[in-house]
Amino acid sequence: MTMAEDTQVIIVGAGPVGLLLAGELRLGGARVVVVESRVTPTTESRASTLHARTMELFDSRGLLAALGDPPRDHRGHFGGIPLDLGQPSRHSGQWKVPQARTEQVLQEWAVSLGAQVRRGATLTGVHDDGAAVHATIRTARGRSVLRAPYLVACDGEDSTVRRLTGAEFPGRPAHRELLRADVAGVEIPDRRFERLAPGLAIAARRPDGVTRVMVHEFGRPAGQRTGPPGFGEVVDAWKRVTGEDLSGGTPLWVNAFGDANRQLRHYRHGRILFAGDAAHQQMPAGGQALNLGLQDAANLGWKLALEVGARPPAGLLDSYHRERHQVGARVLANIRAQALLLLGDEEVDSVRVLLGELLAEEGNRDRLAAMISGLDVRYPQEDGDDPRLGRRMPELTWQTPDGPVGTAALLRAGRGVLLDRCGRPGGPMSRIGRPWADRVDTVTARPAGDAEFEDHTAVLIRPDGYVAWIGADVHGAEEALRRWFGAATPEG
Question: CA-to-CA distance for 346 and 86, rounded, in angstroms?
Fold first, then answer.
């Protein structure tokens, strides 16, 4: 075994969640090493849906151009019942980006910022001694130890870190499952959540000619699997449900997923934290699982970077569990409902009819659309009852001394932003923000043509785009800066 090597944060897992977290940590100045057992990046496009809030986050980091021009659909669903996802966001709807492409973009971004990604590195042991985390890694060259103040598990629903630490993961196992495959060379009709007498069938042909199929036979329980199903199992199930023959096609990949629904009791265990599917396991209904995990990473990254910095705010890191566990529980509840609506037999038909009628009402439709899109999140606040606190900052255009700038551009550096709405450069609010200039940008700006923030002098925005404080009192601003971003930098 080689000698222990030091860094500031170890991330286990180079999927989308781990790679986004690595980039967020580097924006905050933290040294980070990502370890991944896979030797090469995935070529399987499992999760392919990005929702509005995730796209807003990517926009705030300048990542949209790298994604290209992905297809966009304002149609979504809730348990297979059509749902219009139009929301007050320029990124509303769902964007179809293959997971392989999302991982490629995030890895290139994180590495360009200085993150280290080590592939072919398997975690075999982890120990938190109270002062640091020691991770034992096996590679083709042998074993080594990485040591860091913190480790984050982003290693999926079968998390090795969760197993090694014995973290409590309550919930229910899978009762039903869907078989899924990407198949080339087949000609079958598209089916959008089609419920036939024997089961559920979904088929969608992509522009490249590959057809994604998913199938569930009503009443068929989830089996105990030690690996993915064979293509023959998909062929047989598809024929029993639809009468169509897939056997002449070429499978590109095949897997199965169930309706298991579990959530860690605590997202933080001392110096070990969990994000994405390592923290919560759910059926990937409408892409919510991937987006939930990416938003975990956006919430955690800036907080953990401050924690390993010179002047960490007291208690800030604990807010990760407090905020994201609540969001995760709500998403898991809606996915449980969707799983029953999708995979239940004729006994759920009357509920589906009733829900379809309710979703014809605009208010009900908008509420579910905002939930699925991640736009309804409001983190709990202790600084007042203003309804804007804890919510994402709207996508506004701000008039600054240097010209108009959008909300996303203000957040591009991954730092906090103190918006001095009524002041001038060098005014009282600017002077208050000066001791935090290494972590927070103070910007003199007015919203252009929007009255939502006309009634307060200043707004403090977190690096993940959520409103932390609103007010006119410079002393209140100073207190909020200290609470969210730590002690002021000493003058001198």
Answer: 30
Q: Does residue 100 contact residue 41 with C-beta atoms inside 8 Å?
A: yes
Instruction: Considering only the C-alpha atoms of the chain, give the largest distance between any 2 of them, rounded to a whole number of Å.
Output: 78
Integer angstrom CA distances of residue 197 from 240, 243, 304: 10, 11, 51
pLDDT 10s digits, 322-375: 999 999 999 999 999 999 999 999 999 999 999 999 999 999 999 999 999 999
CA dist 78 and 82 (Å) reads: 7
C-beta atoms surrounding 397 within 10 Å: 16
Write out the residue limits of the CATH 3.40.30.120 domain(s) in the chain: 397-485
pTM here is: 0.95
Q: Which CATH architecture has domain 176-258?
A: 2-Layer Sandwich (3.30)
Domain 4-171+262-373 has CATH 3.40.50.720: no
DSSP letters of 18-55? HHHHHHHHHHTT--EEEEES-SS--------EEEHHHH
Q: What secondary structure does DSSP assign to 66-123, as a single string? A: HH-S--EESEEEETTEEEE---SSTT-SEEE--HHHHHHHHHHHHHHTT-EEEES-EE
Where along the chain do the CATH 3.50.50.60 domains lie?
4-171+262-373
**Cα dihedral 422, 425, 426, 427 in deg (nearest 10):** -10
| CATH top class, domain 397-485 | alpha beta
